[in-house]
Amino acid sequence: MNYQLIVVGPLETNCYLFFCQETRECAIIDPGAEAERIFPIITQLSLKPIIVLNTHGHVDHTGANLEMKDRYGVPIALHQNDLSLLEENLQLEFELMLGAKPSPRPDQILTDGDEIKVGQTKLQVIHTPGHSLGSVCFYTPGLLFSGDTLFYGGVGRTDLPGGSWKDLMNSIKNRVLTYPDETIVLPGHGPRTTIAGEKESNPFLE
Question: What are phi and psi of 76, to 5 degrees?
Fold first, then answer.
């Protein structure tokens, strides 16, 4: 599979490097913390970062955006509806606690249906509000980067600003679970799963 997982920060956020095998171009998905752990992996794999993609605007997913942009000169991409999260006072408190750095405002706004080219492959943007207003997933055949929308045996919390249980359930049932059963789901925290596995045994989706 053309991705590399790096678990970063005290909240154990899953940062993913999604890359093209041929060109080595890569998208850095959710660099939440510990840039010094991400940089060496990019070097070891001979990758060429072209963009930072955020599944949503919470600081545990954006905390190393600035360092990625400074090191590689790449744009940051986020959904319009999560722009305000970058400036929330609650976020600022979490930044101090997590040792994260404030994220610059995005250079590119993600919208539902966008296609992000990464070398000879691409990721489709799926707007999945619920965990936050601007939460998105990224899909390429066989893989779904689900952010904090869907987890192994769980779903995203909805008690933070912009959260909505109704919207989350709608996003999961009417968007995420419509992808092929064999699709591997790569969440923002915890182990990977599959669409079929979550349909069959996720207690929140009964």
Answer: -105, 135
Does the pTM surpass 0.90? The reply is yes
Burial (CB < 10 A; 0-12, 13-18, 19+), residue 4, is: middle
Q: Are strands 25-29 and 48-53 parallel, antiparallel or unpaired?
A: parallel
115 has pLDDT over 90 = yes
Burial grade of 169 (CB within 10 A; 0-12, 13-18, 19 or more): middle
Domains and CATH numbers, the chain: 3-205 (3.60.15.10)
CA distance 28 to 200: 31
Helices 65-72 and 35-44: crossing angle, nearest 10°? 40
Give the tens place of pLDDT for each residue, 147-159: 999 999 999 999 9
Integer angstrom CA distances of residue 195 from 37, 39, 56, 153, 202: 30, 31, 21, 11, 10
Alpha helices, DSSP H, located in 17-164: 35-44, 59-62, 65-72, 89-98
Q: What is the token pair recorded at 136?
A: 């998105």
* Separation of CA 57 from chain center: 9
CA distance 39 to 44: 9
